Amino acid sequence: MEKIRKEFPVTRKGIYTNTAVYGPMYDSLLDWRQEHDLDFLLHGSEMRDRSLKIISDTRSTVGQFFNCKRENVALVSNFSTGMNLLLEGLRPKTKVLLIEVDYPSLNWPFESRDFDVCYLKLGADFEQRIQEKIRSENVEVLALSLVQWLDGFLVDLNFLKELKNTNPNLIIVADGTQFCGSRTFDFKTSGIDVLGASAYKWMLSGYGNGFMLFSDEVQERFDLSTIGFNAANGDLEKKGNIRFAKRMEPGHLSCLNFGSLKFSIDFLTGIGIDAITNHNKALSIKAKKEFGELGLLKQDILEREEHSTIFNIKGDDNLLNKLTQKNVLCAQRGNGIRLSFHFYNTQNEIDEVVKILKTGM
Questions:
Q1: CB 3.0 to 4.6 Å from 180: which of 71, 100, 142, 176, for a disulfide?
Q2: CATH code reported for the domain at 33-270
Q3: pLDDT at position 360 over 80
Q4: CATH superfamily assigned to domain 2-25+272-360
Q5: To 10 degrees, the CA torsion angle through 340, 341, 344, 349?
Q6: Where are the alpha helices (DSSP H) in 67-221?
Q7: Helix (H) / strand (E) containing 320
Q8: Where do the domains of the chain lie?
């Protein structure tokens, strides 16, 4: 990973533990974006056909990377926009189960519409209580983030698969913004019906691009009325024959932004998503052990078998300032300080963070 790490200039400024806020730009993506804009500068409208091909290729690349049918991939500017478009097609009064402290862009679109919403608290026995809630409340839709934004709580993916098997009529909607790109994922076998994500974090693609993946079955449960010329691929004859995923794309898409998504997926694929997964799991295990021994993690996180690479440690403004002064880039979230690690981080960096924490406690 050391060679790959050199692609990210920000890692030379200090210890970058802020991917949960923003995935940093890297040299080869910058080169591609500059070349793209230079071509646009020189060729103008001649870029149109190339732009359409970039969008088409991006759709295929997203589908291949996550094992989702190409025709079930929607390209959206961000997760928030995609969710709001999707929920306009969900029947009013639908019984929905949300997580109390989940990301606002997941919860708010449900809460602002005429759905019957109930909630569940996070905890070590989280999955068991989901099952109980679904039975007792006759839940029709479960919507949750695969990784919680505040503390990195990781949902058991095998549990979601089993949950879908035992509740085939349950619609599972997942936010993968803090998950996708951090480890391997197979949408087809996941049991998830809708997976949406913004790609500027762990996918390293910059702002303005994201995606939504749909199972075949779930498309019958939403009645989407969104439409635009782009949804019909600019063909007047196709107004009445627009597939489900394309209704999420009523207007033109940026070939720069979505070309960046394709480039970054190819970049991650070149490194090897299995290698990234293994590296990140090792970072997670070490960080959990070290922060746990310092008494900086919540008990429900310590009791979980597996965790993501996002950690919220106990700390105040003084500790945040201490970390910042030592060139550790991190963020204050909730009542603690959030540190997030990706494949360009090292276990030695975790050791360095621990040393700083010990002197600041």
A1: 176
A2: 3.40.640.10
A3: no
A4: Aspartate Aminotransferase, domain 1 (3.90.1150.10)
A5: 100
A6: 79-87, 104-111, 126-137, 157-166
A7: helix 317-325
A8: 2-25+272-360, 33-270
